[in-house]
Amino acid sequence: MATHAPNPFSASGFDTQRDKLAVYFDGTARKAWIDLTSDAKVSGIRATVRAGRDEMRSVLLSMLPEDLRRKRLLDAGCGTGALAVEAAFRGAEITAVDVASGLVDIAKERAPQFLGHGKIAWQAGDFLDPQLGEFEHIVLMDSLIHYSLSDMVAALSDLSKRCHGSIAFTFAPHTPMLGAMHRVGKIFPRSDRSPAIVPIAERRLRQALAPLHEWRIGRTQRVSSGFYTSQAMQLVRR
Fold first, then answer.
1. Candidates 2.40.160.10, 3.40.710.10, 3.40.50.150, 3.40.50.10490; CATH matching 11-237
2. Where are the alpha helices (DSSP H) in 3-94?
3. In which band, very low, low, confident or very high, does the pLDDT at 14 lie, cut at 50, 70 and 90?
4. Is 186 exposed, middle or buried (0-12, 13-18, 19+ CB in 10 A)?
5. Cβ contacts of residue 73 below 8 Å, gap of 6+?
6. Is residue 35 very low, low, confident or very high in pLDDT (cuts 50, 70, 90)?
7. Residues with Cβ < 8 Å from 82, sequence gap 6 or more?
8. How far lies 122's CA from each of 30, 95, 119, 187, 224, in Å?
9. I want to staple 147 with a disulfide (CB 3.0 to 4.6 A). Which of 21, 151, 153, 205 is the partner?
10. pLDDT per residue as tens digits for the range 163-195
11. What's residue 23's pLDDT?
């Protein structure tokens, strides 16, 4: 009988944070995010973030098989769609979901008409929705970095029940700089800042993932580029 980790998931807490992110990325951050994920000229700081995201996307794609033909892949938190498009060219059948409907609209506009053997179904909504079905692979690029450790692990546990191969995700690694930024950010009124990134110590994350007995931790790789710091981690079904 399959066993899964105890679920510390606070649905109301996760839903509240998810809704805040939807408002932020569909409102305050929409134009900046469109520019950041295009070839538009941006500031030096944003250029380092763009370079970091490009590198992280490559890292996550390297955790997937080169041949994804006839494989179902969930791009959970697809943003403006760059990762989904690259995976589609490997032949994947992709469900690309994001809570920000405006970003999904941009992704649809940017996606090429010809995707080789692959195809993408774009959808605005919750990537934890069980109605999305089951997948061979799931990718979450910077989709969980605004959530607490317990909510992050609970979300991964939930997704693991519908995944047969691998889950590649990112977290914000706890560094002295990120920890200080997180503490200082909390003193400002919430209306004056973007949703906080939650730094997580890798050791604590590994411990929290240990109860996922059907899964093992595979590759992990950190990307640091100016103001962008994120770490990829791969879960592989045993």
1. 3.40.50.150
2. 11-26, 30-36, 44-62, 82-88
3. confident
4. exposed
5. 64, 87, 92, 93, 94, 95, 135, 136, 137, 138, 139
6. confident
7. 37, 57
8. 18, 6, 10, 38, 30
9. 151
10. 999 999 999 998 766 656 545 444 444 444 467
11. 87
pTM metric for this prediction: 0.87
Look over the chain and give the mean of its residue pLDDT values, rounded to a whole number.
89
Q: Calculate the CA 74 to chain-centre distance.
A: 11
Whether 148 contacts 220, CB under 8 Å: no
CB 215 within 8 A of CB 235: yes
Domain extent listing, the chain = 11-237
Tokens of 18: 């998810």
The two three-digit tokens of residue 74, written as one number:
């969930």
